[in-house]
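Whiteboard transcription, Tuesday session. T.W. wrote the structure tokens on the left side:
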């Protein structure tokens, strides 16, 4: 009994068997990851810009509605040394977080120190409760309460204004990083294309 032998095609040593190229796979993965990261950064940057614009507009509109104006720079109301920071905004309407911080800490706070004798609302209120017949003290407590409330609201506006500024800076950083990732991904795609051309040749 004879066994038939199947003829095998001759192997051409000039064309080696195709093997996966780990370097090319790494390039593909890194390039795809770079494009995905760029997309994420662009979306994040857009959201941060929206947050900055929204908060900034809210602060401006709410402060403008209060119609608070800084005394003129040459006014006697801000002539004392402790009011020096107020003069940079002399005569302007209070509409920004930075202005709110100056007005709260360099105008209202200084007046409250004089009105309350350096004591806070909590301290004055405790004294008034211990001396309920003292009408002058009661009036001082009411004035200090109103002043501290307004000061707190203005400082909240300053805090949100600071967050809006941080959001803007972060948005710029995100856009710059996205641009960098797009450039690197483009270089990666060019490298992959050159690798394919070299293999074909």
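and on the right, the sequence the group agreed on:
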């Amino acid at each position: 009994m004879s066994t038939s032998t199947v003829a095998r095609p001759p192997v051409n040593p000039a064309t080696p068997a195709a093997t996966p190229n780990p370097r090319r796979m790494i390039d593909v993965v890194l390039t795809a990851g770079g494009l995905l990261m760029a997309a994420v950064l662009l979306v994040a940057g857009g959201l941060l810009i929206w947050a900055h614009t929204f908060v900034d507009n809210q602060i401006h509109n709410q402060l403008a509605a209060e119609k608070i104006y800084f005394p003129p720079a040459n006014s006697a109301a801000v002539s004392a040394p402790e009011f020096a920071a107020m003069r940079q905004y002399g005569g302007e309407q209070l509409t920004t977080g930075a202005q709110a911080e100056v007005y709260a800490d360099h105008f209202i706070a200084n007046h409250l120190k004089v009105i309350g004798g350096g004591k806070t609302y909590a301290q004055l209120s405790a004294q008034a409760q211990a001396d309920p017949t003292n009408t002058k003290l009661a009036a001082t407590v009411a004035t200090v309460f109103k002043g501290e409330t307004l000061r707190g609201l203005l400082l909240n506006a300053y805090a949100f204004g600071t967050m809006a500024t941080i959001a803007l800076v972060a948005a710029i950083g995100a856009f710059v990083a996205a641009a960098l990732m797009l450039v690197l991904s483009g270089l990666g795609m060019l490298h992959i294309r050159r690798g394919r051309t070299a293999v074909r040749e």
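Someone added at the bottom: Residues 29 and 48 are 28 Å apart (CA to CA).
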